[in-house]
Amino acid sequence: MTQTNRDFSRGPVWKIILQQSVPLMLAQLIQLLYNVVDRIYIGHMDGGSSTALTGVGLTFPVITFIVAFAALFGMGGVPLFSIACGAGDKAKAEHILGNSCCLLLISSVILTAAGYALCKPVLYLLGASDSSYVYAADYLHIYLAGTVFSMLNTGLGGYISAQGFPRMGMLTTVIGAVLNILLDPLFIFVLHLGIRGAAAATVISQIVSAAWVLHFLMNVQTPVPLRKTEIRIDPVTAGRICRLGTSNFVMQGTACFVQAACNSTLQQFGGDVYVGIMTVLNSVRDVIALPIGGLVSGSQPVVGYNYGAKCYDRVRSAIRFNTLAGAVYTVAAWLLIVLFPALWFRIFSEDTALLDAGIAAIRTYFFGFVFMSFQFAGQSTFQALGKAKQAIFFSLLRKAIIVIPLTLLLPRLGMGVMGVFIAEPISNALGGLASFLTMYVTIYRKLGQKTE
């Protein structure tokens, strides 16, 4: 078993961040293919009609809600795990990992049961029409069967990279994603299972990925392994995981409510076509936001380790690198959207109605995307250093306090469907700048003035 460099306190910070981030970006990209490939194939079903694509888009809030719990109990423990590793406390790190795994298992069972019980009323609440509900229900009924595997894969994957094995973390995702890409056309078009085939391919792939993650973490050669004796709930440790993971939960959970607000409002003011447009925009956003998300996620173990090792100059260096690299990337990504808006829609559907109405929507939705780099830089720093209250607040600010009210209000002030798309850039600017400036004043400047 090889590794890149588990001592994050030596060597150029930017280089270590890239060593951690690039494999993680690739892993997240491949992970994203689980859903994006489904959407591409589904969008070309039934002669290119957007109804099936709209149906799967209605399941996004439910899937995002499940991911939110994986982030709460999985990613919430990774910064604590990294700090413990940096301090040389292996027993504490194992204890954190075990508690995180137990929380993921318990919550996945509860979420699966609740999902089946509430499927129909929830989908109609999210904006389903009678025609789109059929597709949404077919997809979700099968997807829910793989909840436990999805949560273990998503929630525990970060503990592999945090130990200095980013390439192995990438490999755990590659296996499942490649399998999903191969199974999708087989199940959808060859076996004629349609949208149910897409969901089945995803579940099978998640099972394989989860098995690989558990195999790695439970290997005795792993530096900090997942021990069966530690898979239990310690109220104190679980509480710390939940407090820090709440920022992830809020970020994902509010994304769920944003998606729900968007879908229901678009259904009211525009119908199924605009819900389909939002499905494409969500997919495009997931793809283009992935590199910057991977960058800051890969840097979190580096920041946390150096903070635990009291190397504060290196923490400052990591923050500077994240901010500059993120700003350059988001400007470049925005230019691609503005210059080639139609290209993104043609990837997902051949429906001309979707394309004609979607060009203005995508240009509006991604205006000011650069401010997301400041949101990511500030948010990830708070989280990496265990500043749970600040991380939670700025997660709530951008989505719950700004974007959801605007999404509900602007269309009713005469903007119609465009009000939904305008709400996103406004929230990016206000929330992103507030998060970054607060982090700069309360953390960055203080680390530069003294060693703690």
Q: Work out the number of β strands.
A: 0
**Secondary-structure element order, N to C:** HHHHHHHHHHHHHHHHHH
Radius of gyration: 21 Å
**Beta-strand percentage?**
under 5%
Helices, by number, come to 18
Description:
- With 452 residues, the chain is mainly alpha-helical.
- It has one domain.
- It has 18 helices and no strands.
Task: Produce a short descriptive summary.
The chain is an all-alpha fold and 452 residues long.
Task: Give the SSE map.
Layout: H1 13-43, H2 51-58, H3 60-75, H4 78-86, H5 90-125, H6 130-143, H7 147-156, H8 158-161, H9 166-190, H10 194-217, H11 235-269, H12 272-308, H13 312-339, H14 341-348, H15 352-365, H16 371-384, H17 388-409, H18 417-449
Helix pairs in contact: 1-2, 1-9, 1-10, 1-12, 2-6, 2-12, 3-5, 3-7, 3-11, 4-5, 4-12, 5-6, 5-7, 5-11, 6-10, 7-10, 9-10, 11-12, 11-17, 12-13, 12-15, 12-16, 13-16, 14-15, 15-18, 16-17, 16-18, 17-18
Write out key terms for the chains shown.
452 residues; mainly alpha; globular; disordered N terminus
